[in-house]
Amino acid sequence: MKNLEPFFNPKSILIVGVSRKAYTFSYTVLKNLLEIFYQGKLYILNPNANEVLGVKSYHSLEELPEIPELAVIVLGTKILDIVEELGKYGVKYVTIQSELKTGINDTDLTLKLHKVCEKYGITYLGPSMIGIINFIDNFTTSIIPVRQHIMRENKNITEGIGFIAQSGGLAGALGWWTPSQKLPISKVIHLGKGFHVNEQDIIEFFLNDKTVKVISLFLREISDDLIDAVKNISQYKPVLFFYVGKDELKERELEKAGGISVLNYIELFEIAKIFLWCPEPKGPNLGIIGPSSGAIHLIVKEMRKQHLSLAKPDKESQDIIINKIGGSTCAYGNPVDYWPPEKFIGIKICGIYNTSASTLLKDEHVDGLILALEFFIEIEFDFNIFDSIRRTNPDKPIIVILIQAEHEGAKRVFKSASEIKIPVFENEIERAVRGYRLLYDYYSKIKKK
């Protein structure tokens, strides 16, 4: 396996040809590193400048005080010459974040680039790549903006998503965009043409990265190498993918290899949070707590479609729910349909969810729990009650669905749920239920292997 650590967390970096013009790609790489307070040694090379953004500019490689661990090239010309100079100087890791343009055909140019790198023992990424974002170690080579507050929010996570995109824009967007529920993201990469290091290499790197728990792939093409990599790795870490190409045969092969196909791009993150935060389901039998029969029926309909079942709690659980909750609760104690409560304010509704959730999760016939929440601002509800419930029942998945929730109430739930690692879906009943099914299928396949 190739050592890719210097690309993701170099101790020192050289940016070749940093422009003084604001908003150019090379300028932005430097600006990003300064704004996120990169802690390694930062060097820039520009023979026509003495400084850029307050950073000293060296005029030649020989002036550098050390051999940088990583060099980043964001230039449009003389790339082969620059790579050769870097190789002679002793640089072993290079990212080429611009296109190769010399007037000769791509195949010849690629071969020449590879021979130069082979000659000097250089491992290289690119060309035509947007860059890397490493949230864990506070590092990026992205040629488009990366926001300091997003880096800061992900810095101290222990387990997150490793995202590989065959699209520069979609990969780079993780530098300024976040999903509706804040998710821990470990690392993001766009490989460009990936001649030397490909998706297979990155997936293998992510396998051994303890901060990557789930791998998400946006794919335009599916290679045999990628299929082999997923086959080897999917039994250890879930690999979600969304494919926009036309080769249905390759897509099916990737699924057979263990890749988990999602229905659209956003599900690379929305389904990923179920795999990040939910434990292995022991079975297909779910408990439901909701405020209306309509919401519950919507969930149950999708459960039938996904071949999931309503759990039938034991007599003791039924008695606790029926006697303490009352109302229109189902005779079996599941689903718990508590509407109407006696009043909206106070601890009444919190008490209903606390009692029902604790009772269902303790029951051996219940494999997981879906909470349906309908909020308006008059309802007092502290979602943090589920912190202790989750800790008491760490081996059963809890998934939340907000149905027609008033905006302020929804914001509170998203914030609290993210902090205690419970996935929330807003008006996405089908996605939430299907996500549980995908989670259950994934662990079931691993057991068979």
Q: Average pLDDT value?
A: 92
Cα-atom Rg, whole angstroms? 26 Å
Q: Name the CATH superfamily assignment of the largest domain.
A: NAD(P)-binding Rossmann-like Domain
So, CATH architecture of the largest domain? 3-Layer(aba) Sandwich
What is the number of independent domains? 2
Q: What class do helices, strands and sheet pairing give?
A: alpha/beta
| Strand element count | 20
Tally of separate helices:
17
**Widest sheet, order of strands:** 3-4-2-1-5-6-7
Q: What percentage of amino acids are in beta strands? A: 15-25%
CATH topology description of the largest domain: Rossmann fold
Could you list the spans in which at least 5 consecutive residues all have pLDDT below 50?
none
Shape: elongated
Main sheet makeup: 7 strands, mixed
Helix % is: 25-40%
The CATH class label of the largest domain is Alpha Beta
Roughly how many Å apart are the termini? 24 Å
Short account of what is shown:
This protein is of the alpha/beta class and 449 residues long. The chain has helices at residues 5-8, 25-35, 79-89, 106-120, 148-154, 168-172, 199-207, 224-233, 248-256, 267-270, 272-277, 293-305, 315-325, 348-362, 385-392, 407-419, 429-448, and strands at residues 12-16, 41-45, 51-52, 55-58, 70-73, 93-96, 123-125, 131-134, 139-140, 160-165, 185-190, 212-219, 239-243, 260-261, 285-290, 309-310, 336-337, 368-373, 398-402, 424-426. α6 links the parallel β10 and β11 (185-190).
